[in-house]
Amino acid sequence: MKTHDTVPVTTGLGKVSRRDFLKFCTVVAVGMGLPVTAGARIAQAITSPKRPPVIWLSFQECTGCVESLLRSNHPTLEQLILDHISLDYSETLSAAAGHQAEAAKASSISANKGKFILVVDGAIPTKDNGIYCKIAGKTALQILKETAPSAGAIVAMGSCASWGGIAAAGSNPTGAKGIPEILGNGQVVTIPGCPPNPYNLLSTILFYLTFHKLPELDGQGRPKFAYSRLIHENCERRPHFDAGRFAQQFGDEVHRSGGCLYKLGCKGPETYANCPSVLFGETGAGTWPVGIGHPCFGCTEKGVGFNEPLHQMAQLKDLTPPVFFSEAFPNKEGVSPGISSLATGSAGLVVGAAGVALLTGLGKDKFRDKDNGKHDRSSHDKEV
Amino acid sequence: MAISRRRFLQGAAGGGALLIASRLPDAGATMSRELPPHAVGILYDATLCVGCKSCMVSCKKENSVPGGALYRQGRSEPPFESSLPGGNMWDAPRELTGKTLNIIKVYKNGSAQVKDREKDGYAFFKQQCLHCISPACASVCPAGAFRKDADTGAVIYLANRCIGCRYCQLACPFGVPRYEWDSAWPEVRKCQLCEHRLKEGKYSACAEVCPTGATIFGKVTDLRAEGKRRLALKPGEPYLYPLNRVDSKEKTLRPASRYVKQLYGLEEAGGTQNLLLSGISFDLLGFRENIARFDLPSLTWAYIAKIPWVFLGVFLGGTAIYKVTHRNDREGKP
Amino acid sequence: MIDTSKYLGPRFGGVVNRLLDDSHSEYLGIRLVTPFTLLLAALIGIAAVVGCYRLWFGIGAASNLNDLWPWGLWISFDVLGGVAMAAGGFLIAAAVYILNWKKYKCIARASILNAFFGYLLAAMSICLDIGRSFVIWHPLVMWQVNSIMFIVAIHVVLYTSTLGTESSPMLFEKLGWTGALDKVNRCMVGIVLFGVLLSLLHQSSLGAVYLIAPGKLSPIWYGHYLPYMFLVSAIMMGISMVSFETILTGKVFNHQVPMEVIEGLSRGIVITGVLYFCMKAGHIASGIGFGAVFDGSLLGNLWLIEMAVGVVLPVGLLAFGQVRRDPQRVFAADIMVILGVLLNRLNVGIFGVSEYATRSGGDYFPSAMEFLLTVGMIAFAILGFKLCAKYLNLFPTHH
Asked: Which chain A residue shows the shortest CA-CA distance from B115?
């Protein structure tokens, strides 16, 4: 039974055991906030004979996004590109080069029209007709406009592809723009980050393969499963923020003991990303910028990363105040319970005693006769 | 039974001496309505506050040293709210107390989503002594245990004078002074503007650590000018907010907030050295509408000023009445 | 009677013997060991324990006072109420020694002693209420004349000693110290005048204590005339207290005073009562308006009860000559005035500031220890008065 079971799986998945593979699918499903049972569907989608074709275009980029993908372990790169997807074109990873590679791309596009996933990293220069980035004699702008209409889904990988990133920072000499801006902000999924977390891309692709639709996106095209929470909300250093323990400068006592980096310019409070929960590089806890002691610089947030000065303090966004803050002013109407019972009690006592005094005083009295006939003593006061 | 004229005059002279000894005129002068020459204070801008509480942490730490407002002999570490074992692991005061001189509270309404909005919003807010120009606590203390520093204007507590009557708590229009209820030899605790640090050339600990410039320290005149400048800004207009001190070179650029058009502390309770700016109505933050806009000590002074006349009236009137009513007795006596 | 000189030596024992000699007051029929006095002694004992507990463990441990309720039962009832009850002392002293109204002489000693106990009660309560009881003398040497509390402190000390001096002839008489007796008697008028002055200032300054808190004390009570309302109500209550105590001693101590005295006191209550009513009504009319007290709110109702029980009903009753001549009815009216003014002091001291404190999230209900201490104080005053009546010549006319 055992051998019979493993043979087809090994054929499909290389050296990964079936158990490990299903585990991976389940982890991905959970990572996207899907039910655990979705893991089985993902597994089915991945192992189906026809692997999903992916075309990866790189423009004004530093290859950081690809490098980040190379460092994913679940699955490893070779498993990903050989077993899970069919990476039909990538300038960095293609075995082919030159005209051969371009031909592979063209054939893949025509073969998989409307089905392939287009991943783009790097910004698109638009100034001077986009002459600042050319591949095979075509400008980035031309390549994108040719390829995009045939794609089933378009993913902008990294901050540059998402809104221009570092290429568009400052004076933006090449007129760099993000993919959504060029294609119109339609169905482009943006995975900003510098570099973005590879699992956010992977999860998006697998979601698309499984459900044949894109995951829920926010206003900037970011998948909500990864970008709906502020870094500040899940940050492991958050308790230090709440308790007011701030590193004043790099290397000071608070910094060394893991205090909050807000004062060093951490952009966590205005940046939406899942960095604190997914981490980077898979080398254990705390392996993300804030975890290793550097303030977040806001790379996933347009207008923050590459834009705000690195050590300028962030503005807090949509933050629910913690419950242990005391109310500024209870502003309760009326009179508190203890006092009102004391008041009612005293008033009752006063009215009651006065009533008794009044009734006994006005009623028949036995003392009245006593006073009659008393002699006047005041006349013979001696002295005091 | 008769009082001799000599004896009566002696008594009257004694009363007069008592009156003179009470130094009425110069005591009145200690309740000045003018800002001291080098008055310093704090400007708290609630719209900049992120509720990080670092001011609370620093306040407690810096004031627990000898000379600080929380110092008590024989206490080596800052006083924490919880008296349970291990209570110093996490200190989250809910109120100003005898152990907390400075607290960040929150105003919350509905879903509490947007900062500095009254409806469905929230706002942070700092409570501490405002250092009145004419402090009610100092005026009501029977033993003079509160003193307004003649130079910096910080309202300082002198524990070795205090009798613990808590009149200061009743008198303070802002409800600031707090009492060490759990102590058999209690002291009144309140912010003293880090007076011990001012002497060392430093400044208030809360302003020193505030990361956003929500709490800034400086001369009151500068703070007033800064506050008025901020109120004149259009919401959203970029403005360089100074950090830590009003005259600091370190500034942070951010869009101006939408302020309630009131610089709190200009005239409240006759003016305070600490000033407040807020994005929502001060009434919601516990700074009530019905607060007096004049110096409170003048209310009691109006009464006290009449006392010499009561002295005079009772002694003169009493003697006159005595003379008239005892005329017959005296005539009848040998 | 036991001859203590056997045990204490002739000199000291003789003094004790004379003190314990109660032959002059035998006609009063005061028995020391009764269930009532034993109860009083027990209450005093409990209060003493509570007092020690409070001194040892602090105010927070003994009371429910807190930062939003810095003052509670002890200040409002023991101090404000106790002092107001003691106002009779200076009034009768002034009537006898200054105005030369001789008919009140027969109650002068009792009234002054009563006032002395009222002040003693207030002074002891203050002593326990302040957190640093052992430095209560600070205000006497660290003057701060802007403070009403300073004026109150000075007055409590001076007036308690004045009352002590005014009462001292009784003791000197008893001990046969004629020299001291003569000296005190010779400057009695000066002392009384001083006492009148202190009382006028003291009674009003207890009201002036609240002048500094316009935003805290409800406008139903707060006003610039608060000190004067305190003074007038204290006078009204002081007279009622004297009248009450005169009739009460007449009932329980087998001691009678002429009806003329009680009638005169009743007239005094009516005069001050009318004045007080005008002040109170004028205050409401010129301030927040009568709508605020007739709106059915707790504070409004408290004001109405205070006025109805303490002023309107008793003064209305005493306005009839027939009522004034009937000690039983005067007694009822006295009780009502006392209750009403006590409620007024509670209103100003506790309930009037409750809306402010509630808004800030505060609450207060006196702890059992606070009640016990207060009850013990009252028991102390009653028992002390009874002992003085037995061993001192409180009603000198019977000699």
From this structure: A318
